[in-house]
What does this fold into?
Amino acid sequence: MKITIIGAGNIGSAMARGLAQRKEIDVTITNISKGKLEPLKEECPHLNISYNNAEAIQGADLIIIAVKPWRAQSAVDTFRDVLDYDHQMIGSVVGGMGTDEISSLFTRPDGKLPAVFYIIPNTAIAVQESMTFICSARASQEQNDAVQRVFDTLGMTMFVEERFMNAGLVVASCGIAYAMRYIRAAMEGGIELGLYASDAQKVVIQTLKGASVLLQKNGNHPELEIDRVTTPAGLTIRGLAAMEEAGFSASVIRGLRASMPK
Ligand SMILES: NC(=O)c1ccc[n+]([C@@H]2O[C@H](COP(=O)([O-])OP(=O)(O)OC[C@H]3O[C@@H](n4cnc5c(N)ncnc54)[C@H](OP(=O)(O)O)[C@@H]3O)[C@@H](O)[C@H]2O)c1
It folds into this structure.
């Protein structure tokens, strides 16, 4: 599979870093301004870099647009005329831009449109631990499978109906930031209780990793694992009750709701 990524910003370069680990995938990444591509190439020598989008998409099976929404049309304009609408697939990670909107960037007089994938990874794609949501328009089952296989190598993928994409975007993509805030808060608490900052960070990360692996391995509901830690009249239940009194669960849910695209 040959992939060209248009835009070497946060998510474009994170995807390139992750994909560069897969020897079976040939990755080219482009950027409009100078200065971002060379350090990336130094870090990942297998990557191809280019400042010319039209050249960079030659022979690509999948072209992934990774620019800010307001720069998507101008980015597409740089290569639309040389795109093979029958064989080249378009992916876009532009948040909140669904398959209709992505397709409209490719409108041409004969009305033909390419197969389009709306892909929402998160930044953990750089370490091959993304939670990625994908939906498509005009793609064959074979094309859907091929694109899913690429992202399966970069973490976990859910191929969904388009109506689920916004929830996926909020919970998984914005969710990385929310998880980081929990980590920061728990670290601050640990420091207040006497841990050094560097130790607090290690402790919180390992504890969260343990919680995640427990749930992944046994498939239990989190409340069942919580029950195992909460001795009647013990310490954990006192902590949980104080957190809920301060609005922990309600705050998380309210934050997720506030993030939903309108
Ligand atoms: N950050 C995330 O976690 C995340 C997750 C999922 C989806 N997304 C989506 O991904 C998109 C990109 O977000 P980001 O945070 O990566 O933005 P970003 O850091 O601003 O990166 C966009 C990159 O695209 C480059 N670019 C703009 N026009 C171009 C063109 N015509 N040809 C080649 N490169 C071009 C920009 O170049 P210069 O700025 O150097 O000029 C910039 O390096 C957004 O639409 C966002 O919704 C982000």
User: Anything to note?
Assistant: Residues 6-12, 30-33, 36, 53, 66-69, 71, 74-75, 78, 93-95, 120-123, 173 surround NAP (CB under 6 Å). The chain has two domains: 2-160, 169-259. The beta strands are 2-6, 26-30, 48-50, 62-65, 89-92, 116-120, 130-137, 155-159.
